[in-house]
Design goal:
α1 (10-18) packs antiparallel against α8 (150-162) and α8 (150-162) crosses α9. This protein starts with 6 loop residues before the first strand and ends with a helix. It is globular and about 50 Å long. Strands 1, 2, 3, 4, 5 and 6 form a six-stranded mixed sheet that branches. The chain is built from eleven helices and six strands. It has 272 residues and is α/β, with parallel strands linked by helices. The structure holds iron/sulfur cluster.
Length: 272
């Protein structure tokens, strides 16, 4: 393992699990995505930029800039629709009386690494914390799929492990943590995941195991699941085809969007 890698995030862990080769190209060799040549990829890139911009609009609003002023910056069809859905999102109005911590970064030691996550929003009500993550996916993923993603596991576990300063110096009890994915195109169908002490223990043990595996890894094989390559930006490095696959599998499509997802941790990894 090169010295250069000292940070792990939900996205690098997910890449390692999905395809060790992708993890190597992205986080060890730090290869930029190759030139985007195909139409689906161009669309993905535009969608990604709009997703990033949407996150910025929400963050501006959460730190106090009036909605009308922020809304004037929503200058594409997608942004206007997402912003309007966001304003209609009743839950946010209810949050106004709570302690809101937009774009908080938490980190904790994990083996030889630091585990880092940047949260879109943590809302605190006494000793109860709700983690919000805004998603601009074109499809609403199944809850079962979200439940096992590293993001869902890392964000809740890291809040237990490293969030005491948000709770008067006391670690949050896992039972007092909930994670909510809110989908800008499916505003009335958020996915909610409560937490439990035994799940926290399983998650943290699994994190320690995968960090140890990454520390001792000497080879980074390509995934056997060739379908995962259909939308992978590194296809041309792996002789797994140069054009994006057909949009046949909904979950694969979502995984593709995840690859182009707003990735603050990666920004954190570069700056850390
Ligand atoms: S193209 Fe396939 S094998 Fe290559 S990095 Fe991507 S997912 Fe892994």
């Amino acid at each position: 393992m090169p010295e250069i890698l000292n940070i792990l995030s939900q996205s690098s862990l997910q890449d390692y699990q999905d395809c060790p080769r992708r993890f190597k190209l992205r986080y060890l060799q730090r290869l930029a995505y190759p030139a985007i040549e195909t139409e689906p990829a161009l669309e993905n890139e535009k969608h990604q930029q709009e997703g990033e911009y949407f996150h910025r609009l929400v963050q501006q609003h959460l730190i106090g800039i009036p909605a009308e002023q922020v809304g004037r910056l929503a200058n594409t069809d997608n942004l206007q629709r997402w912003w309007s859905h966001f304003l209609d999102f009743g839950g946010l109005k209810d949050l106004r009386s709570l302690g809101l911590y937009p774009e908080v970064t938490l980190s904790a030691p994990l083996g030889k690494f630091r585990l880092v996550a940047k949260y879109d929003l943590i809302a605190i009500d006494k000793d109860h914390a709700t983690i919000f993550d805004w998603k601009t996916y074109r499809r609403r993923p199944k809850n079962e799929w979200l439940h096992v993603r590293w993001q869902t596991r890392v964000y809740r576990a890291l809040l237990v492990q490293a969030g005491a300063h948000l709770n008067n110096g006391n670690p949050f009890a896992p039972e007092k943590i909930e994670m909510v994915y809110w989908f800008a195109d499916f505003p009335t169908e958020p996915a909610r995941f409560v937490y439990k002490a035994d799940q926290f223990k399983r998650d943290w043990d699994a994190l320690i195991r995968i960090a140890e595996e990454i520390t001792s890894a000497s080879s980074y094989p390509k995934t056997d699941e060739v379908s995962k390559c259909s939308y992978c930006p590194y296809r041309s490095y792996c002789n797994r085809g140069v054009r994006a696959g057909d949009a046949a599998d909904a979950e694969l499509e979502t995984e593709a969007e995840e690859l182009f997802d707003v990735n603050f941790e990666q920004i954190g990894e570069i700056a850390f």
